[in-house]
Amino acid sequence: MNDTDKTLVFLTNNTDLPARTIAELYRCRCQVELFFKWIKQHLRIKSFFGTSENAVKSQIWNAVSVYVLVAILKKRLNLSASLYEILQILSLTMFERTPLDQLLARIPPASDQPENPNQLILFN
């Protein structure tokens, strides 16, 4: 039983470990799965280039570094675009000689108006 008085059932073939340990392992696994989901969604890592611990850690740290640098860039330039949009622009213009502030200043401001003035707004 947990704090909400719900009974949780976990299946395992390891009968040597106590039930609380099995439940804790499942909880930790869920956190790992959520972490990898966040990585795929935000850090643009679709697959790992290597299988060793060092290769995976290096790739994750590189991606986190880029993510943080883009977040700093977004804040310093006061950009309205999402981090995803900025990363898209940077990946397409990686080898251009245009300064970043000029490159990202071209991002059109987010508009609340629909593209078609005859289109009704479903949600406000």
Automatic annotation (TrEMBL):
InterPro entries (alphabetical): RNaseH-like_sf, Transposase_11
Pfam families: DDE_Tnp_1
One GO biological process term: DNA transposition
Chain ranges of the Transposase IS4-like domain: 8-69
Gene Ontology molecular function: DNA binding; transposase activity
Record-linked PANTHER family: TRANSPOSASE INSL FOR INSERTION SEQUENCE ELEMENT IS186A-RELATED
Protein known as: Transposase IS4-like domain-containing protein
Organism of derivation: Georgfuchsia toluolica
